[in-house]
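Researcher: I'd like a candidate sequence for this fold, 315 residues long. If you have to choose between options at a position, lean toward the conservative one.
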């Protein structure tokens, strides 16, 4: 793939001077050896969901974004699509080369359930080309009207089929939660939907990516569980986490999304309690990062501060 020079003035303008501003204020990325000194999330297990910086992927393209992520210290990337208006016609093969060029590891990808239903083998082809060990969805298993025990049982059967197809390719299939999965069934107020999903999916075929923020929102709207317990009791099913932080608020969800380390979720307790340090990949996500003010470095500034905060977690 030809690599035309990126206009650095254009890049710095697009990210509001982020690179220079946050590098001066940031701290050096810790070495892998730091993992032995109580780091709860080793650097080699820290990644980013590209949806977080979607504005930069769209305006600058994968190449420029990957260069900056590598500079910050991120090592793993989770996709939320394979296109960019800044790089018309880019292919997954070219994206894979850009990852390799920047020493980044593609770890997973969010794909819509509709895409799996209509183009399952194509999505697995793309995952295979990118070298993804995991591919999955961030869609709720059912529509709001179908939040019933039977609805989730049917969804689990579908997930098992997707997982079986992925396993044939040497890929693991996963589902990423939001808060609605933790609600009680419409037809059985004593049954939590997430429990149905866990019980009805084959642990060898369907894995789970806990979005920690949304799990705590789920605890707020449908109390009676601790997100940590799900991981402790099903350790092999959670290879991936979304490390998303939230500050308590009067909002219906109980939290507002903020940069990692700026919120009230006790990640120290979370990671210390689940144990198995180094087994899980923690992918930073902040839905509203593109709204970060220019004077704070924009989305890339949020990315750098959040990376530093994840590295600073000690247990």
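Model: Candidate sequence:
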């Amino acid at each position: 793939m030809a690599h035309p020079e990126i206009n650095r003035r254009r890049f710095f303008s697009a990210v509001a001077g982020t690179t220079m501003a946050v590098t001066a204020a940031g701290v050096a990325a810790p070495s892998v050896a730091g993992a032995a000194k109580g780091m709860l999330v080793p650097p080699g297990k820290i990644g980013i969901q590209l949806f977080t910086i979607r504005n930069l992927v769209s305006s600058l393209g994968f190449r420029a974004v990957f260069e900056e992520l590598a500079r910050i210290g991120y090592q793993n990337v989770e996709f939320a699509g394979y296109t960019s208006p800044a790089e018309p016609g880019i292919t997954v093969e070219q994206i894979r080369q850009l990852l390799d060029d920047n020493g980044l590891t593609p770890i997973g990808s969010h794909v819509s359930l509709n895409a799996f239903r209509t183009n399952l083998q194509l999505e697995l082809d793309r995952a295979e080309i990118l070298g993804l060990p995991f591919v999955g969805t961030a869609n709720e298993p059912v529509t709001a009207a179908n939040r019933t025990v039977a609805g989730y049982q049917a969804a689990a059967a579908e997930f098992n089929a997707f997982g079986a197809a992925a396993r044939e390719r040497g890929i693991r299939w996963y589902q990423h939660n939001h808060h609605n999965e933790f609600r009680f069934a419409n037809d059985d107020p004593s049954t939590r939907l997430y429990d149905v999903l866990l019980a009805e999916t084959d642990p060898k075929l369907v894995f789970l990516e806990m979005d920690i923020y949304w799990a705590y929102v789920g605890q707020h709207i449908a109390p009676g569980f601790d997100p940590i317990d799900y991981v402790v009791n099903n350790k092999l099913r959670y290879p991936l986490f979304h490390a998303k932080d939230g500050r308590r608020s009067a909002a219906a969800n109980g939290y507002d999304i903020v940069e990692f380390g700026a919120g009230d979720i006790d990640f120290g307790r979370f990671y210390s309690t689940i144990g198995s340090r180094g087994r899980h990949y923690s992918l930073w996500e902040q839905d509203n990062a593109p709204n970060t003010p220019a004077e704070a470095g924009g989305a890339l500034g949020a990315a750098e501060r959040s990376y530093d905060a994840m590295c600073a977690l000690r247990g």
